[in-house]
Write a structure and sequence with these properties.
By secondary structure, the protein is mainly α. It is built from 6 helices and no strands. The chain has helices at 2-6, 8-26, 48-55, 64-94, 105-138, 161-168.
Length: 176
């Protein structure tokens, strides 16, 4: 969550760019020069050890207050993970702007809805992140940030997809 928070500037900037692209397309401008949109990173929230401890009854070794506090952290992590999936679906639709020659009413409605969903997801993820980090801090838990890599949202929109993929690196690629 801390790493995702560190990339929020590129995310906000890209959402504003997408809003501008939509406004330009509504005025008849081709978006053929938009070659890259990117997406927010996907984070996997690990809770297997807590689930195993709970299933085995070992979480009962914690005081009721500790159980509640730890449960709060994992509940927020689960909410965060679910919202990431919704966010990724919105961004999958937003990538439909790449190379768009003309904007139909149906496409406008779909992209506008996706933009609003992406903005809402960003807001919810920010809240979940702050609440989870605050709850973890109260328990004395500190995260270990993963080394930062280039966010696909920080790559300019006029960079061809193949070049953007090379800049990002990693072995998993990007949805196009």
């Amino acid at each position: 969550m801390q790493n995702a928070d560190g990339r929020s500037a590129c995310l906000s900037r890209r959402l504003d760019e997408i809003s501008s692209f939509l406004n330009q397309a509504r005025k008849g401008r081709s978006l053929a020069d938009v070659k890259w949109i990117g997406r927010p990173p996907v984070w996997d929230m690990e809770d297997a050890r807590w689930q195993a401890a709970t299933s085995a009854g070992r979480s009962s070794l914690f005081s009721p207050d500790e159980q509640a506090a730890i449960g709060d952290v994992y509940s927020l992590m689960a909410d965060y993970q679910g919202q990431i999936r919704i966010e990724q679906e919105a961004w999958a639709k937003l990538r439909g702007l790449v190379g768009l020659e003309a904007l139909s009413e149906a496409r406008d409605a779909s992209l506008s809805d996706a933009l609003q969903q992406a903005r809402y997801s960003q807001w919810v993820l920010n809240i979940d992140s702050k609440q989870a980090q605050d709850a973890a801090k109260r328990l004395g838990i500190r995260g270990t940030p993963v080394p930062q890599s280039l966010s696909s949202l920080c790559i300019p929109t006029n960079v061809p997809a193949a070049d953007a993929m090379n800049r990002i690196g990693g072995g998993y690629g990007e949805p196009l």
